[in-house]
């Protein structure tokens, strides 16, 4: 048995790029694109939509910007596009005029990421994208840090907007399945006319379990990444998710093949996944930026020092 309404979104390039400033080769992105297409994945999030006035291409790779010329280098010679493409837009990092009409773009969906205090701006940007012909979602980040009243007010605003897909995001990998149960049900009740999505981080090794909890509670847009590659502790592993869903349209072998050929080599360059510093920030419900800085230092294996650093002002001992 499977739920045909479920859509799977691969975040390998977009979320993984947070670990290397999107300095992936075209061949890497193309192989991920082809594997996702063969595997029957519904959407590939190929990167961010960002204004080039805000970020420099000398520092950031092309998937920070997702310009049409860059996308065409990946898909232009591979025949008919068999997978939808999405990009994420952060509030304050993209100008409206830098988003082309959908008919001039290979992108199908824009996912607007925001914090609770940015709800109004996120709705306006998502509506702008929809008016230009794109599908749109709003991904409400860091809800593990949001109080009940603020969350209720945000969901009330989202209920009134035209955006059809709203994401529950465990930005810090702080949630347990019981939290996902409660929040999924809250989102479903507050947004009866919307589709709910789930994006999880793996700080406590719960990204897959928490995604399953969201599925059980009715979430139909599911994020994952190849071998869990992503910011800090990474994300729900795409290959695990596809295997769990049991939908015959999904094929796991193309994902395994691209992991072996193109994801494994990145393990020698990027430390994502289960590491004590990422675990600690998840347990403490903190942004992983301090853990990422520690992991990039020459003393990344001095995890007791990091423990002492982040617990100095807490009761956790």
What features would you describe in this structure?
The chain is α/β, with parallel strands linked by helices and 317 residues long. The mean pLDDT is 96. Helices cover 38% and strands 14% of the residues. The chain has two domains: 7-268, TIM Barrel (Alpha-Beta Barrel); 278-311, no CATH class. The longest helix has 14 residues, at 26-39. It contains twelve helices and eight strands.
Uncertain runs: none
Strand content: 5-15%
Cα gyration radius (Å):
19 Å
Specify the overall morphology.
globular
What secondary-structure arrangement, pairings included, does this model have?
Layout: E1 7-10, H1 12-16, H2 26-39, E2 43-48, H3 68-75, E3 84-90, E4 109-114, H4 119-131, E5 135-140, H5 148-160, E6 165-170, H6 177-190, E7 195-200, H7 207-216, E8 221-224, H8 238-245, H9 253-263, H10 276-283, H11 289-295, H12 303-311
Parallel strand pairs: 1-2, 1-8, 2-3, 3-4, 4-5, 5-6, 6-7, 7-8
Helix pairs in contact: 2-9, 6-7, 10-11, 10-12
Note the main attributes of this structure.
TIM Barrel, alpha/beta, 2 domains, 317 residues
In short:
38% of the residues lie in helices and 14% in strands.
């Amino acid at each position: 048995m499977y739920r045909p309404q479920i859509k799977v979104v691969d975040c390998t390039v977009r979320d993984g790029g947070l670990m290397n400033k999107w300095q992936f080769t075209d061949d890497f992105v193309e192989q991920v694109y082809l594997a996702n297409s063969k595997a029957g994945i519904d959407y590939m999030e190929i990167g961010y939509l960002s204004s080039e006035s805000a970020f420099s291409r000398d520092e950031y790779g092309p998937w920070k910007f997702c310009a049409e010329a860059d996308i065409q280098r990946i898909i232009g010679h591979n025949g008919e596009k068999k997978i939808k493409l999405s990009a994420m837009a952060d509030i304050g990092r993209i100008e409206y005029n830098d988003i082309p009409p959908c008919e001039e773009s290979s992108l199908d969906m824009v996912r607007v990421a925001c914090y609770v205090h940015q709800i109004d701006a996120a709705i306006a940007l998502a509506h702008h994208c929809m008016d230009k012909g794109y599908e749109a979602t709003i991904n409400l980040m860091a809800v593990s840090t949001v109080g009940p009243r603020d969350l209720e007010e945000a969901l009330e605003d989202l209920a009134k907007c035209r955006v059809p897909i709203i994401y529950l995001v465990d930005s810090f990998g702080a949630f347990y399945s019981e939290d996902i149960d409660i929040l999924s049900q809250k989102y479903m009740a507050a947004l009866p006319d919307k589709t709910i999505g789930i994006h999880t981080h793996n700080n406590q090794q719960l990204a897959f379990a928490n995604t399953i909890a969201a599925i059980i509670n009715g979430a139909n847009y599911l994020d994952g990444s190849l071998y869990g590659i992503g910011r800090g502790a990474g994300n729900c592993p795409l290959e695990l998710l596809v295997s769990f869903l049991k939908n015959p349209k999904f094929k796991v072998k193309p994902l395994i093949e691209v992991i072996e050929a193109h994801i494994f080599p990145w393990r020698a360059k990027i430390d994502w996944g289960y590491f004590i510093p990422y675990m600690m920030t998840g347990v403490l419900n903190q942004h992983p930026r301090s853990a990422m800085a520690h992991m990039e230092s020459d003393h990344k294996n001095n995890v007791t020092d990091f423990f002492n650093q982040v617990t100095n002002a807490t009761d956790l001992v």
